[in-house]
Amino acid sequence: MAGIRHVLHAAAFGLAALAFAAPEGAAQSTPVSGDILVLNQDRLLSQTQYGQRIQRELEAASSALAAQNREIEAQLTAEELELTDLRATLEPADFREMADEFDERVSSIRAAQDAKTRDLQSQAEAARQRFFEEIVPILLDLVESEGAAVLLDSRTVLLSAGSVDITDRAISEIDTALGQGGVAPLFTTFD
After folding, report:
1. From residue 149, how far is each of 14, 126, 143 by CA, in Å?
2. Cα(47)–Cα(31) distance, integer angstroms
3. Domains with residue ranges and CATH for the chain
4. CA gap 173, 152 in Å, rounded
5. Which whole-number Å values give the CA distances from 14 to 69, 90, 95, 116, in the listed order?
6. Is 172 helix (H, G, I), strand (E, B) or coil?
7. 78-133 pLDDT per residue, tens
8. How many whole angstroms separate alpha carbon 132 and alpha carbon 139?
């Protein structure tokens, strides 16, 4: 409850600051200089060139891993059918030994593929974290150029005037400063 009260006070303070920023009818720059600015972090990740590159490379790596999983599944299905066909021609003990070996191999492959999925998720989180770390200086410059003291994620703000949202400007500044965030691949491929 204290967190909500804090956000409401911050929003009210921000709106009050906007009301006194300039006399009615006076020209104001966009965004309005004040104590509090907001931006949408999700849009920074989805609409900057760098963020879009992260998403493209993540989708490509996910698709490659999914294709690899389908290929492995097809191979294992074919092996399972072969094993099933051999059942009639083998001694029960020999079949059981082959079936147990197959089951162990399937479990091992499943564990390896699950580890690759977890690794890809970790890489995605690391890429997003790196993105946000690299944009901090750009956002700090924007906050300072507007004379603001606080920058809030728009998801934490209950109510704000649109003129305090600097998301579009931040996207432009990030694209100018970082472009696509380099050329080195962001995700490893899985063999």
Report:
1. 11, 28, 7
2. 19
3. 2-178 (3.30.910.20)
4. 18
5. 51, 79, 74, 46
6. helix
7. 999 999 999 999 999 999 999 999 999 999 999 999 999 999 999 999 999 999 99
8. 10
35 contacts 17 by C-beta, under 8 angstroms: yes
Query: In the block, which residue shows the tokens 């728009």?
Result: 154
The secondary element (H helix, E strand) that includes residue 150 is strand 150-153
Q: Answer for the pair 33, 146: CB distance below 8 angstroms, yes or no.
A: yes
Q: Is the model's pLDDT at 17 over the cut of 70?
A: no
Q: Which two tokens mark 85?
A: 């066909």
Residue with the two structure tokens 């400063």 = 177
Gap between the Cα atoms of 89 and 58, Å rounded: 47
- Look up residue 178 and give its two tokens: 């970082």
Q: Give the span between the Cα atoms of 50 and 127, in whole angstroms.
A: 10
Question: Beta strands 36-39 and 150-153: pairing type?
Answer: parallel
d(CA 9, CA 157): 10
Tokens of 47: 């609409």
Question: Do residues 187 and 123 lie in contact, with contact meaning Cβ atoms separated by under 8 Å?
Answer: yes
Please count the CA atoms within 13 angstroms of the CA of 7 that sit on its side-chain side: 13
- The angle formed by the CA atoms of residues 55, 57 and 60, to the nearest 5 degrees, is 110
